[in-house]
Design a protein that fits this description.
Number of helices of chain A: 41
Order of helices and strands of chain B: EHHEEHEEEHEHEEEEHEH
Helix content of chain A: 55-70%
CATH architecture of the largest domain in chain B: Roll
Strand content of chain B: 25-35%
Number of strands of chain B: 12
Subunit structure (chain B): Interacts with pre-ribosome complex.
InterPro entries (chain B): NIP7_N (IPR040598), Nip7_N_euk (IPR055359), PUA (IPR002478), PUA-like_sf (IPR015947), PUA_sf (IPR036974), Ribosomal_synth_fac_NIP7 (IPR016686), UPF0113_PUA (IPR005155)
Largest sheet of chain B: 6 strands, mixed
Number of domains of chain B: 2
Distance between the termini of chain A: 67 Å
Helix content of chain B: 25-40%
CATH superfamily of one domain in chain A: Vaccinia Virus protein VP39
Number of strands of chain A: 15
GO molecular function (chain B): RNA binding
Structural class of chain B: alpha+beta
Organism (chain B): Tigriopus californicus (Marine copepod)
CATH architecture of one domain in chain A: 3-Layer(aba) Sandwich
Family (chain B): Belongs to the NIP7 family.
Number of helices of chain B: 7
Oligomer: heterodimer
C-alpha cells in the first residue's frame, strides 16, 4: 500500500552513453581566415552599409555554415574587461590593443569605421560602466552587452544571424580568439603535429582551448569578485535614495544584491571598502536592508547581527524563513519505533530516524495523511514534537522512580517524554502558569497513557514553597522565541528591548525557584536543566551566569554531544568559563529550532544568604529602574501614597487653623529646609541671616523668628510627633519617585560636601526659588524625617540662638547633629549652594564646621538625641525610597 | 481533593462494571502499589496513593489533574466515563466490538457504529451492554453501548446501529479543551 521512496534503484550517476560529452566543433583554417578578409566599405550610408554587410554575411554563411563573425564577442570581451579596476588596467590595455587589431582586421571595419567604432565602445563603457558595476552576474552582463552591441553597432555587424549569436556564438568566438592568440604556437608546433594523427591534434587543441576557457572564466570570476565590489561599495545609498526607496514598495532584488555586496565588503573591509565610509555605515545599511528584506524589526535584527558574524547572517535569516522538518517522537510506553514507523509507512508517510542521537525521534519528509489525526496518533503511539525539544529531556536524563518537576510544561511534549523515560514510575509534576495551556498537557498526558503525572497550574516561582526535594527539574523557560521564528514569525517583528528584559527577569526568578526546588542530597540526581527556544544570550548565558552566582550550583556537560558551545563572552559580558558546557543549537547549522540547553548540578541546599541579599537588592533596583514593577508592589505604593495624602491633608487642616493659607503652603515647601539649616548650617546661616532676611521677609519666620508662625506650626505638630514623622517619612517615600537614586548614592559621599552645604543653606532658604530647589533635594536624600525631629527639638533653640546671632553656639548645634546628619542633607546643600551663592560661602563653611567640631563638648543633650533618630530615619528612608522609586 | 463518598463510589463502580465486570478488582488490588480514586472538582481520578499524597500539597484550584481521569459526576449525581479512562477499560473489557477500517473513521468522528461497519463482536453481548470498540488491528478506539445483542446483530440490516457511541479517541483532538 504505502509508497516508500525506493532508493535502491537509483539511476547511476556519472558518464553514461547519453552524458558522454561531445567534442566542441572545429573549423577549417580557411574559415577562420575568412573573417579576416577585409570588406570594402565605401562611402555608403549607415543603412546601406549594414545591408551590404548582411549580404556578405549571408554569402559567407552559405559557403561555410557555422562561421560567425567573432568580432561581436571579441568586442564584448573587450568592453567587459575594461570594467575591471586598476589592477587589471594593463590587461585592459592589452585587450584594447587586441581589439584595435581585431578591429583592423574585422569584417566591416575600415579605417573610417575605426575612428568611430572605438568611441562607441568607449561610450558604452562610459555609459554602462556604472550599470555594470551594479550588476554582479556575468550572465546578465553579457546579455545586456549583447543587446547593447546589437543596438549600438548595427552597422558593423549583420543582425541576420542573431540566433547563432546567442547559441554557438560564445564558443565559436572564444575559439576564434584563441585561434588568433595561439596562432603562433600552433604554427610552431606544427612539425610535431604532423607526426600526430589529425584527431590527436584536434584533441590537443581542444585541451588547450578548454584550459583557456577555464582561465578566462576564472578571470571573469575574479573580476566579478574583486573589481566589481568596490564599485558597489561606493554605491551605498544616499539619504535621498533611501527616502525614495522608502516611498516605494521595496524592490527585493535590489535589496538582495545590495545586501550581498555589503556583506562582501564587510568581509574584506580594508580592501573593498569605499574611502571615507566607516564600517558602521555599512553595517547600518546592511541592517536596514535586512530588516526590510526579511521583515524584522530593527531591534531583533541588531540582536541577530550581534550574535552571528556577517558571513553567516544571511544563512541564519534564510533558515528562519524555512520550516523545519516535522518530527515525531515515539511513545515508548505504548509502542516501539520500528513498529510505529512500519504502521506509518503503511499509511503513506515517508519518514526516517531523526539521527543517531535519539532512539525515539522520526523525521517525516512527506505524508499523505494528516499526521496529527492518524489512529496511531489518537491511540497515543506518538506525539508531534520538534527535534530540538528532545534535547533538554535527553540532557535531563530522568531515571525511574525519581521525583521530577517540569516547571513550564505546556503543551506537554517534554513532560510526556520524561514520563516515558521514567516508565510511568516515580512522580512527575508538570506545571504551567497558564491554565488554558495546561489543558493541552492534560490531553497529551492522557493520550499517551501516562499515569505518574500531577498537572498543576501555578506560578513557577511559587513552586518551591509548595514542594521541594525534587531529584531533577526541567525548566524550559518562557522566552522571546527568537529560535523558532520559522514557527512563529511574530517574534521577529514584535519583540523589543522591553520584552526581552521582562522575559529575562522572569527567567531569573524561575531559575532560582527551580534550583530551590531541587534536592542537592538526592542520590540519583540533583540536576537542573535549563533550556529556552531562544538564541539571545540575554535569555541564556546571562541567566545561567546569574544562577551560578546566586546558588550553589555548577554546570555539568549537557549530555548532548553536538551543538555549539555556549558563549563565555559576548559583547561586554564575560561569563563563567564553565559556560562552555552549555549547548546552543541553530536553525542553519543543525536544522532544528534555535535552542539552548544548560545542565546544572546542585551542590548544596543552603542558599548563600549574605551577599545574596545585597545582590538581590541591587538586582531589584536595577530591575525596577528599567522595567516592570510588580503589580503588587505598585498597588502597595499607591496605597501608601493615598494614606500619605490623607495624613498630609489632616495635618494641613490642623495647621491651617493656626495659619494663614499662604504660609501654610510655604510651610510645606520649607519643612525640609529648617532641618537642613538647623542641622549644620546654622552657624553660617546666622552670619548671613541678616542680609537675606531683609531681602526675603517672608522666609524670616522660619529661621529668624521662630516665635511666629513657624513656631506655631511646630507647636501644632509637636503634640503628634509620631504622626508628623510618619507623614514625613511617607512623603520622603513619595518624593524620591520624582528624583531617583541620586540621593541614595550621595548619602555616602556627602560629608565632604557638607561644608559647602552649610554656606548654601541660608541663602537657599531666603531665595524662594532656591528654597524650592532645596526641598526637592531634601526629598532626594530621602530622610526628611530628620528635619521634623530636629525642628521639634532644636530648631526653636537654634532659632533663638540665631536671633541672638550667636555664632559660637550654632556651631555646637551643628556639631551634635552633623556627624550623622551630614550625610543626609549634603547633596542638597551642594546643589542649593550652586543655585544660590556659590562664591561667598565656600570659604566660610569650612570655618563653621571646624568651629562646630571643637565645641563638641558644649553640645546639648537634646541635640545629641537627634542623630539617633536621624539614623533610624535614615534607615527607614532608603527603603521607602526604594519603594517610591517604582 | 477528597475520597469518594459511598454514593459516589457506588455510581462509579456500577458504571465501570458495565464495561469490565468484576475486573474492577484488578484496578484496586495492584501489585505495583496502592491505587485509589479521588474526587477533585467533580472529576474522578485514579491514582497511585503515593502520588496522590504528594499532589495534596498543591492548592486545589491549581491542581488540574493527577494520575488518570476516569470521568466526572454530573450535577444530577450520575457518573460519566471519559475517554481518558480507555487505557484502563480496554485491557479488562468483557465485551468488545471490532470495526472495519472503513467504519473506523466514522466512529472517530463521533458517529454510532453501523452493522455495515461491524467487523466482529463478542459472543453473548447483551443489549445495552457497555462495550469497548476496537479497530480491526486491535487498537482501542473508544467505548459505547451495544444497541443490539449479538444474536440480533446477525440479522440486522446493514444500516442499523449496532453500537451507540459514548466516547472515542477522536476527542483528543476534537475536544481537547473539554477533555476532563
Amino acid at each position: 500500500m504505502g509508497r516508500k521512496g525506493n532508493f535502491q534503484e537509483r539511476v547511476k550517476s556519472g558518464p553514461g552513453r547519453k552524458t558522454k560529452k561531445q567534442a566542441d566543433p572545429t573549423f577549417a583554417p580557411e574559415i577562420l581566415e575568412a573573417k579576416n578578409a577585409p570588406t570594402q566599405t565605401l562611402n555608403l550610408s549607415r543603412r546601406q552599409r549594414t545591408r551590404v554587410k548582411k549580404r556578405e554575411e549571408l554569402k559567407s554563411q552559405l559557403k561555410t555554415r557555422g562561421a560567425i563573425p567573432t568580432t561581436a564577442k571579441g568586442k564584448k570581451r573587450a568592453v567587459k574587461i575594461p570594467q575591471s579596476d586598476d589592477d587589471s588596467d594593463d590587461e585592459n590595455l592589452d585587450n584594447e590593443d587586441e581589439e584595435m587589431e581585431d578591429g583592423g582586421n574585422l569584417i566591416g571595419y575600415s579605417d573610417e569605421n575605426q575612428k568611430w567604432l572605438k568611441p562607441v565602445a568607449e561610450t558604452l563603457k562610459r555609459k554602462f560602466g556604472d550599470y555594470h558595476s551594479d550588476e554582479e552576474e556575468d550572465g546578465e552582463d553579457e546579455e545586456l552587452e549583447d543587446e547593447e552591441d546589437d543596438d549600438l553597432m548595427p552597422d558593423s555587424f549583420a543582425n541576420s544571424d542573431e540566433d547563432d549569436d546567442d547559441g554557438d556564438g560564445d564558443e565559436n568566438e572564444e575559439g576564434d580568439e584563441e585561434g588568433d592568440e595561439e596562432g603562433d604556437e600552433e604554427e610552431g608546433g606544427s612539425d610535431e603535429d604532423e607526426a600526430m594523427l589529425p584527431i590527436e591534434r584536434e584533441a590537443k587543441k581542444m585541451e588547450k582551448k578548454q584550459k583557456k576557457l577555464q582561465k578566462i572564466a576564472q578571470m571573469d570570476m575574479d573580476e566579478a569578485m574583486l573589481s566589481n565590489q568596490p564599485h558597489e561599495a561606493i554605491t551605498l545609498p544616499t539619504v535621498l535614495e533611501l527616502a525614495e526607496e522608502a516611498a516605494k514598495p521595496p524592490d527585493l532584488h535590489i535589496l538582495q544584491t545590495r545586501m550581498k555586496d555589503i556583506i562582501n565588503v564587510l568581509q574584506n573591509f580594508s580592501k573593498l571598502r569605499e574611502e571615507g565610509r566607516s564600517r558602521e555605515e555599512y553595517l547600518e545599511c546592511l541592517k536596514r536592508d535586512l530588516c526590510q528584506y526579511y521583515n524584522y524589526n530593527e531591534f531583533m535584527m541588531e540582536k541577530f547581527m550581534q550574535i552571528f558574524p556577517v558571513s553567516e547572517i544571511m544563512e541564519v535569516l534564510e533558515a528562519n524563513e524555512v520550516q523545519r522538518p516535522v518530527t515525531i517522537r515515539t511513545n515508548s510506553l505504548k509502542t516501539r519505533r520500528r513498529d510505529l514507523a512500519q504502521a506509518l509507512i503503511n499509511r503513506g508517510v515517508n519518514l526516517d530516524p531523526v539521527g543517531k542521537w535519539s532512539k525515539v525521534g522520526l523525521v517525516v519528509y512527506s505524508s499523505q495523511v494528516p499526521l496529527g489525526a492518524t489512529p496511531e496518533y489518537l491511540a497515543g503511539h506518538y506525539i508531534l514534537q520538534g527535534a530540538s525539544s528532545l534535547l533538554p529531556v535527553m540532557a535531563l536524563a530522568p531515571q525511574e522512580s525519581e521525583r521530577i518537576l517540569d516547571m513550564a510544561s505546556a503543551p506537554g511534549g517534554k513532560t510526556t517524554h520524561i514520563a516515558a523515560l521514567m516508565k510511568n514510575t516515580g512522580l512527575l509534576v508538570a506545571n504551567d502558569a497558564n491554565k488554558e495551556r495546561t489543558k493541552a498537557v492534560v490531553g497529551n498526558v492522557h493520550r499517551l497513557g501516562i499515569t505518574n503525572t500531577v498537572i498543576c497550574s501555578q506560578d513557577g516561582r511559587e513552586i518551591p514553597k509548595m514542594m521541594k526535594g525534587f531529584d531533577r527539574v526541567l525548566l524550559d523557560a518562557p522566552c522571546s522565541g527568537s529560535g523558532v521564528i520559522s514557527k512563529d514569525p511574530d517574534a521577529k517583528a514584535k519583540k523589543d528591548q522591553r520584552d526581552i528584559k521582562v522575559v529575562a527577569n522572569l527567567q531569573k526568578e524561575l531559575i532560582l525557584a527551580a534550583i530551590d526546588a531541587l534536592d542537592a542530597k538526592s542520590k540519583t540526581g540533583g540536576y537542573l536543566v535549563y533550556s529556552t527556544c531562544s538564541i539571545l544570550p540575554e535569555e541564556n548565558e546571562n541567566i545561567v551566569n546569574y544562577a551560578l552566582g546566586k546558588r550553589h550550583v555548577k554546570l555539568v556537560p549537557a549530555g548532548v554531544d553536538f551543538g555549539v558551545e555556549g558563549f563565555t563572552k559576548y559583547r561586554e559580558f564575560r561569563y563563567h568559563p564553565s559556560l562552555k558546557l552549555t549547548r546552543r543549537f541553530y536553525p542553519h547549522t543543525h536544522n532544528m529550532d534555535g535552542f539552548f540547553v544548560a545542565k546544572f548540578k546542585k551542590l548544596s541546599n543552603a542558599i548563600p544568604q549574605t551577599h545574596n541579599n545585597k545582590a538581590d537588592e541591587s538586582e531589584a533596583e536595577e530591575n525596577q529602574d528599567d522595567e516592570v514593577p510588580d503589580k503588587q508592589q505598585l498597588k502597595k505604593k499607591e496605597r501608601i501614597e493615598r494614606k500619605m495624602k490623607k495624613k498630609q491633608a489632616k495635618l494641613d487642616l490642623e495647621s491651617s487653623k493656626d495659619l494663614v493659607k499662604p504660609q501654610k503652603k510655604k510651610r510645606r515647601f520649607e519643612e525640609p529646609k529648617p532641618e537642613a539649616t538647623n542641622n549644620e548650617e546654622l552657624p553660617p546661616s546666622n552670619d548671613q541671616d541678616s542680609e537675606p532676611v531683609k531681602e526675603m521677609p517672608e522666609e524670616k519666620p522660619d529661621q529668624t523668628t521662630p516665635a511666629h508662625s513657624p513656631a506655631v506650626t511646630r507647636s501644632g505638630r509637636t503634640p503628634k510627633p509620631a504622626l508628623m514623622t510618619k507623614g514625613q517619612t511617607l512623603r520622603a517615600a513619595k518624593t524620591p519617585i520624582l528624583k531617583t537614586r541620586k540621593g541614595k548614592k550621595n548619602e555616602n559621599d556627602s560629608p565632604p560636601k557638607d561644608q559647602g552645604q552649610s554656606k548654601a543653606s541660608p541663602k537657599a532658604d531666603q531665595a524662594p526659588k532656591s528654597g524650592k530647589g532645596r526641598v526637592s533635594e531634601v526629598k532626594e536624600t530621602g530622610s526628611p524625617v530628620i528635619s521634623a525631629q530636629v525642628k521639634k527639638g532644636q530648631t526653636p533653640k537654634a532659632g533663638k540662638m540665631t536671633k541672638g546671632s550667636v555664632q559660637d553656639r550654632t556651631p555646637k548645634a551643628k556639631v551634635g547633629q552633623s556627624p550623622k546628619m551630614n550625610s543626609v542633607p549634603t547633596p542638597k546643600v551642594g546643589k542649593g549652594k550652586e543655585g544660590a551663592s556659590p562664591n561667598e560661602k565656600s570659604p566660610q563653611t569650612p570655618k563653621g564646621r571646624k568651629g562646630g567640631q571643637s565645641p563638641k563638648v558644649i553640645a546639648t543633650p537634646k541635640i545629641k538625641k537627634t542623630p539617633l533618630k536621624a539614623r533610624s530615619a535614615q534607615k527607614k528612608s532608603p527603603k521607602s525610597g526604594k519603594k517610591g522609586k517604582k | 481533593m477528597r475520597p469518594l463518598t459511598e454514593d459516589e463510589t457506588k455510581a462509579l463502580f456500577e458504571k465501570l462494571s458495565k464495561y469490565i465486570g468484576e475486573n474492577i478488582k484488578c484496578l484496586l488490588d495492584r501489585p505495583d502499589g496502592l491505587y485509589c480514586f479521588r474526587l477533585q472538582k467533580d472529576r474522578v481520578f485514579y491514582v497511585q496513593e503515593k502520588i496522590m499524597k504528594m499532589a495534596a500539597t498543591f492548592p486545589r484550584d491549581a491542581l488540574m489533574s493527577l494520575g488518570t481521569c476516569f470521568g466526572k459526576f454530573t450535577k444530577s449525581g450520575k457518573f460519566r466515563l471519559h475517554i481518558t479512562a480507555l487505557d484502563f477499560l480496554a485491557p479488562y473489557a468483557k465485551h468488545k466490538v471490532w470495526l472495519k477500517a472503513s467504519a473506523e473513521q466514522q466512529f472517530l468522528y463521533g458517529r454510532n457504529a453501523m452493522k455495515s461497519g461491524l467487523g466482529r463482536i463478542t459472543e453473548n453481548t447483551d443489549k445495552y451492554q457497555g462495550v469497548v470498540v476496537y479497530s480491526m488491528s486491535d487498537l482501542p478506539l473508544g467505548f459505547g453501548v451495544a444497541a443490539k445483542a449479538t444474536a440480533e446483530c446477525r440479522h440486522a440490516e446493514p444500516m442499523s446501529v449496532v453500537c451507540f457511541h459514548q466516547a472515542d479517541v477522536g476527542e483528543y483532538i476534537r475536544n481537547e479543551a473539554m477533555l476532563i
